[in-house]
Amino acid sequence: MTGHRSFKDLRATMSPARRARNAEATQMMLHEMALHELRQARAKSQEELAATLHVGQPAVAKMERRADMYVSNLRRYVEALGGKLEITAKFPDAEVAITQFSDLGAKAGGATS
Predict the structure, then answer these.
(1) Which helix (H) or strand (E) element contains residue 95?
(2) Domain of 72?
(3) Cβ partners under 8 Å of residue 73, min gap 6
């Protein structure tokens, strides 16, 4: 194939500074994701997630499109992907973990952490 080069070859020609910038950009992307991107990164389909959450696939699709939702629903979504939801308030001089929601799953009758 004329004019086509493998990523491995392209990467080999990049300067160390450019590779560092690319690595930093990759980490930023991995730290900021929409729910559907998070699900895809965890290699789960909407159908698989729906089965874990005991809801229909359309409910998962709707959840992924919402701009606002209950913390309990977000927690269930993240836990269904195998994660743990933590809420942190960030200030210029400190970060504070908000614990008010830590036992939300247990109170709602869901799984505890």
Answers:
(1) strand 94-98
(2) 7-107
(3) 63
- Residue 113 forms part of a structural domain: no
Interval 15-36 mean pLDDT = 81
pLDDT digits (tens, 9 = 90+) for 52-91: 999 999 999 999 999 899 999 999 999 999 999 999 999 9
- Cβ contact 105:75 at 8 Å: yes
72 in any annotated domain: yes
Phi and psi dihedrals of 91, rounded to 5?
Answer: -120, 165
For 39-57, letters b (16+ CB in 10 Å) and e give beeeebebebbbebbeeee
Distance of alpha carbon 55 from alpha carbon 60, whole angstroms? 8
Distance, in Å, from the CA atom of 83 to the CA atom of 76, rounded to the nearest integer, reads 9
